[in-house]
C-alpha cells in the first residue's frame, strides 16, 4: 500500500510539473502573440580585410608608389568589379519589438535564425545577451557577417530582407526556456542599398590604401 501511495505521489508530482510547464508555455505563447516585431534598419558596423589576400599581393610596401595589384583592385572597385574575397563585413539588423501595456515581460535568452537578402545571401544571425521584450517599444539588434566578394554590387538588386527562425524566452532571467518561431520581412529602399554598398566599398578602399599609406609613414 505504501509503495502504491509513493508511486501515485510521484505520478501526481510529474503531472503537476508538466501542467505548470504547459501553463507557462501557453502564457508565453499568448504574450508573444501580442508582440509586434518590425525590422527597421541594417547597418554595416565594421569590416575586416582579407589578411591572406593582402599578404599574398603585398599591400604594405616601403615604396612611395602603391603595389600595382592594389591599384588594379582599386580600379576594379571603382568600376563595380570584385574578383576575390576582399574582406568580411560585420553588420547589425535592428528590429522594434512592441508589446502592449499590461503584458508580461519576456527575457530573450537565445535566437536561432537566418537573414535572407532575397536569394543573394543566407546568413546565420545571433543576438546579444540580456535582451528583454517589455510593455512598450524597445529595439532588438541581431548580428551577422558576410564576405565582401563579387556579390556586393548585386545588393542593389535586392528587394526584400527576411528574418526567419526561432526565439527562446522565459519569464525570469534563469527560468525554463520556451521557444517559438518567427518570420519577419521588410522591403529595402534604393537609398538604403546605395548607402550600404558605398559604405562597404569605402571601407574596403581604406583597408587597402590605408595599409600602403601606413607602410610609408615614418615610425615615431
Provide a descriptive summary of the structure in words.
This protein is an alpha+beta fold and 220 residues long. Helix content is 35%, strand content 38%. Strands 1, 2, 3, 4, 5, 6, 7 and 8 form an eight-stranded antiparallel β-sheet that branches. The radius of gyration is 25 Å and the shape is elongated. 18% of the residues are buried. Residues 2-20 have low confidence and may be disordered.
Architecture blueprint of SSEs:
Elements: H1 2-33, E1 36-49, H2 51-57, H3 68-79, E2 87-99, E3 106-117, E4 121-127, E5 131-133, E6 136-148, E7 160-170, E8 178-187, H4 190-216
Antiparallel strand pairs: 1-2, 2-6, 3-4, 3-5, 3-7, 4-6, 7-8
Count of DSSP strands: 8
Q: Tell me the overall shape.
A: elongated
Q: DSSP strand (E) fraction?
A: 35-45%
Estimated radius of gyration: 25 Å
Biggest sheet character: 8 strands, antiparallel
Mean of pLDDT: 78
Helix-strand string = HEHHEEEEEEEH
How many alpha or pi helices? Answer: 4
End-to-end CA span: 89 Å
Quick structural summary:
The protein is of the alpha+beta class and 220 residues long. It is built from four helices and eight strands.
Could you name the key traits of this structure?
220 residues, alpha+beta, 8-stranded antiparallel sheet, 4 helices, disordered N terminus
